[in-house]
Amino acid sequence: MRNWRWGLIGIVFLSFVIRTEAWKFSKAQHEHTERISGSAGDVLEDDPVGRLKVFVYELPSKYNKKILQKDPRCLTHMFAAEIYMHRFLLSSPVRTLNPEEADWFYTPVYTTCDLTPNGLPLPFKSPRMMRSAIQLISSNWPYWNRTEGADHFFIVPHDFGACFHYQEEKAIERGILPLLQRATLVQTFGQRNHVCLKDGSITIPPYAPPQKMQAHLIPPNTPRSIFVYFRGLFYDVGNDPEGGYYARGARASVWENFKDNPLFDISTEHPTTYYEDMQRAIFCLCPLGWAPWSPRLVEAVIFGCIPVIIADDIVLPFADAIPWEEIGVFVAEKDVPKLDTILTSIPTEVILRKQRLLANPSMKQAMLFPQPPQSRDAFHQILNGLARKLPHDRSTFLKPGEKILNWTAGPVGDLKPW
Amino acid sequence: MKLTALQQQSRRSNSFRGSSPLDSSMDGAIKSPSTLGAVTSTSTSLPAMNLTTAAASGTSSSRVVVGRHGILIRPWPHPNPAEVMMAHRLIERVQREQRMQYGVKNPRAVIAITPTYVRTFQTLHLTGVMHSLMNVPYDLVWIVVEAGAVTNETASLLAKSGLTTIHVEYGKKMPILWEDRHKLEAKMRLHALRLVREKKLDGIVIFADDSNMLSMELFDEIQNVNQFGAVSVGILAHSGGDGEDETAVVQKEEEKNSGLPVQGPACNSSNHLVGWQTFNSATFMERSARYVGDRAIVLPRKMEWAGFVLNSRLVWRDAEDKPDWVRDLDEVAADEEDVESPLSFVKDASVVEPLGSCGRKVMIWWLRVEARADSKFPAGWVINPPLDVTVPAKRTPWPDAPPELPLPAGEMAVVLQENAEKHATKTRSTRKRRSKRKHATRTIDERVSTRHAGEN
Questions:
Q1: Does any CB of chain B come closer than 8 Å to the CB of residue A267?
Q2: Which of A255, B188, B262, B381 has the fewest CB atoms within 10 Å, counting from its CB?
Q3: In Å, how far are A195, B41, B73, B426 from B59, measured between CA atoms?
């Protein structure tokens, strides 16, 4: 009897040893990536299902479907996240049809879908559209007035988020739409100490078409032979003829300082091998344009090219889940003339580590909005971000009769009905 | 100037963004001092800013200021050579890391066996193979077996490679007939394999014939071989041809010959080796070359050595895990007078591993181009003694070609070496001094030619 018990202990011990050995072996196999943990901890791979419940308001189709029907280009431009997020939430397990048990409320209004013939969104009607939507939900459901929007979230992926303007000075002048003062904003724009980024916002990457990028993948053993790569405008002569406004002069500075430098493969050409070239480059420049954010960051992460971010005080997507300082290189705009010195003086080990972090598939997934949605993609990261803000604190719920929002604030033009 | 040049470049103008932001409705908050030039080429510490928009909004303003900034350009916007070197070192390190992660794990050494002999085309062929082998990213041992005796020509060629070479001789001279030559090459390769056995060289053996062409992917692919592998060889048999007649006939032959010019393993749909693809030489038989250098098509044998790779341990005397299907080297050499291909080493051909996506990818090409056996070429391709002029140059200080050129005794020969340069200045100056006195230049010429004749 005793022998039998000893045998059992022996078997348990052996299985434990074997399991740790197997774990070590599998870890060694994945040596070319590294786990990513940001300031909020190791949260990139969290599963939001079960951690929050979202109620989706049913708005009349003039706020969403009809707009999309008028212009289907909204599904492919870089602001398409608002549409895909709506679709994702409709069929997600976090959706609840019972608003009483919901933690968060989502209003599906496509404010970035009024496009010019060139495909750029006009923000002039967006404030009125948003206001009209909020008026609708506050009158038809009691949940808005209960918190004045503090447990509601809105997707505003436009240039300067809920400031609803493409020109920075005008956007700052307008500020965030007063009605959204208490709501959580999910936006692509992020810059510290900026009017258009309010505390508690969730920064997301701009939409980049996943299939298009996957179709241009090249074998990973293709040697990376380009040191620095960039394709795009340096001067915006149409809108900034004198120079100095576009990108705060940073892009022009890159051009003037490095156009003759063979290590810098930079130009305004739009080659057909753009994605393939990024996979053959070690550093990809992601300088600001008219707004600090750009799809180049997403492309650089997907293609394993270390992003060189030239945008002062920028807040990058999912900044609490992804430790961007360890993954990318941040260069101050005033340091652009020294860019070559900065990049060549980064120790080799640091560069290899950054590449390992970029190779982590969770990192790439978190930047994408795939159709159909996959686990750990940007949709789930947004939900994770919302889940991390739970439970709502006491200031969320207002006492009966308490009013904070000023429904008549803002420019007079915003008050017109939509 | 700069802006106009750029206007031609950029066509993507977002016209709806309105005209210059200076038209904004902000009250006097934006001033654009014309003193602030668009391009400032001073030092980097230029204070860029001239305005804030903090007054407009009540909340905390961004430290980053909106509005017009100067374009910072450093005084010497050109690359620093030390930094360029560091960048290249970085690139090299990144690529090495890439190879370690995505390339072959635990790469094995490559042992290349090349039979060669001194002839006109040797430098051409051997340089080709040498450069290919120099680019191989793995450890390499190059065994060069020379027919006849070890010569300085071959040795000096090999010395330029910087590779680990073993240069040995194989007593017999290379015969003239192609058939005999193929047989001798096979014996030379066996000799090299004996060397591998003696020295107990460890790695993957490939047979790099000197006129063949190897691609870099081949070396990556053969790292996958376990014991005995086969790759597809592209057969370029239409070489050393005569001219247009030849090519026309050859094209017709090609249409008749529906087979591909490839020799290698053939697999079924589940990627198992089921047989061999060979080059259909039947149609070329009548016009095939018989001896080296006759301008006819050189045909390969049924399965060329070049298409096989083997683990060097297969030829070792006592290797522990030697499989039982391999025959001993000496046994094979003694058994067959002519070992046509390494397949003689295996008792059962089904153990051969097909490489290169089961023979579908051709990474090595077989070619035989040779000059006649009696063709002369300068030793080591260094011209010494100096050449005879066969075609006089136009518009040089040299006199216009006298119709007597070329003469057998080389009387009107003109020196082309360093004396030639001196001579050139001399005639030029003499021509200048004695303007247009052709007979004067001619006398100088004659003087030189007699001197040259004396040299000869």
A1: no
A2: B381
A3: 7, 35, 34, 88
Residue A181 has pLDDT above 60, yes or no: yes
CA distance B364 to B215: 6
Long-range own/partner contacts, residues A406-410 (CB < 8 A, 24 or more apart): A406/A178, A407/A178, A407/A179, A409/A178, A410/A127, A410/A174, A410/A177, A410/A178
Give the residue on A whose Cα is nearest the Cα of B5: A237
CA distance B6 to B433: 57
Give per-residue pLDDT as tens, A65-85.
Answer: 999 999 999 999 999 999 999
* Any domain includes B349: yes
Shortest Cα distance, chain B CAs vs residue A88, angstroms: 32
Q: If contacts are CB pairs under 8 Å, which of residues 76-95 in chain B contact chain A?
A: 77-80, 83-84, 86-87, 89-91, 93-95
Q: How confident is the model at residue B18 (pLDDT cuts 50, 70, 90)?
A: very low
Nearest chain A residue to B18 by CA distance is: A239
Q: Quote the pTM value.
A: 0.69
Side-chain-side CA neighbours of residue B265 (13 Å)? 27
- If one counts the domains in chain B, the total is 1
Q: Which of A192, A221, A241 sits opposite B102 (nearest CB)?
A: A221
**Residues B91, A256: C-beta atoms closer than 8 Å:** no
Specify the pLDDT at position B370: 85
Please give the CATH architecture assigned to the domain spanning A210-367: 3-Layer(aba) Sandwich (3.40)
Chain A residue nearest residue B17, CA to CA: A239
Contact of A278 with A261, CB cutoff 8 Å: no
Asked whether this complex has an ipTM greater than 0.90, the answer is no
What angle (nearest 5°) sits at the alpha carbon of residue B44, between those of residues B41 and B45?
Answer: 120
Given a contact cutoff of 8 angstroms between Cβ atoms, the answer to whether A171 and B66 are in contact is: no
How far apart are the C-alpha atoms of A373 and A378, rounded to whole Å? 9
Instruction: Enumerate residues 23 to 82 of chain A having a beta carbon within 8 A of any beta carbon in chain B.
Output: 31-32
Residue B396 maps to a domain: no
Determine contact: B98 vs chain A, CB below 8 A.
yes
| pLDDT of residue B63 exceeding 80 | no
Confidence of residue B60 (pLDDT cuts 50, 70, 90): low
Tell me: pLDDT of A172 over 80.
yes
Give contacts of B72 with chain A, Cβ < 8 Å: 249, 253, 257, 334, 336-337
Q: A131 and A408 in contact (C-beta within 8 Å)?
A: no
B145 within some domain: yes
Residues in A closer than 8 angstroms to B67, CB to CB, are 169, 245
Residue labelled with tokens 């786990």:
A35
The answer to whether A260 contacts B79, with C-beta atoms less than 8 Å apart, is yes
The answer, for B22 touching chain A at a CB cutoff of 8 Å, is: no
* Alpha-carbon gap, residue A194 to B64, rounded angstroms: 9
- Comparing CA positions, the residue from B386, B394, B396 lying closest to residue B449 is B386
Domain holding B135, by residue range, is: 109-239+259-371
Q: What is the pLDDT of residue B378?
A: 84
**CATH at B169:** 3.90.550.10
Pairing verdict, β A104-106 and A184-187: unpaired
Q: Which of B32, B44, B97 sits opposite A334 (nearest CB)?
A: B44
- % chain B with pLDDT above 70: 68
**How far is it, in rounded angstroms, from Cα A20 to Cα B251?**
66
How far is residue A64's CA from residue A67's CA, in Å, rounded to a whole number? 5
Interface-testing mutation among B19, B45, B64, with chain A (most A C-beta atoms within 10 A): B64
Q: Write down the domain spans for chain A.
A: 48-207+375-415, 210-367
* Contact list, A340 vs chain B (CB under 8 Å): 79-80, 83, 87
Does any domain span residue B252?
no
Instruction: Provide the pLDDT confidence category of residue B318 given band limits of 50, 70 and 90.
Output: confident
At A205-224, the pLDDT tens digits run 999 999 999 999 999 889 99
